[in-house]
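Annotated sample (chain length 130).
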Amino acid sequence: MYRALTHDIEVTVEPYYLEEQSDPDDSRYVWGYRIIIANHSDVAVRLMTRYWHITDENGQVDEVSGPGVIGEQPLLNPGDTYEYSSGCPLDTPSGVMFGHYSMEAEGGETFNVAIPAFSLDSPGLVRTLN
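Output written by the structure step:
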């Protein structure tokens, strides 16, 4: 698992390879990821937007942004957690994702919360280091 803590908001990511949705012969590799957002602060916050920076093993970058996550803009009161799952297809057997959520505190303050960088690696992938 991968974790980041920003402004007392913790983001935990657990990626997993979706073999049944992948087709390596057609250069299609798909991962799912489970995210848990925990509000360790003493104020309520709402997740307003998301931003993803996705890089495949060839260095091809895809940026994704938009309102909320999976169609929701969840409100997290102090001590609350919010969990969701989503996915990411790539044309290569590995890649890396990271990003941030834009949050709004109950007083109207907005701030970004880091989504930690995490690796997308196909099972059985052999890496060679020079």
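Annotation: DSSP finds no helices and nine strands in the chain.
Annotation: The mean pLDDT is 94.
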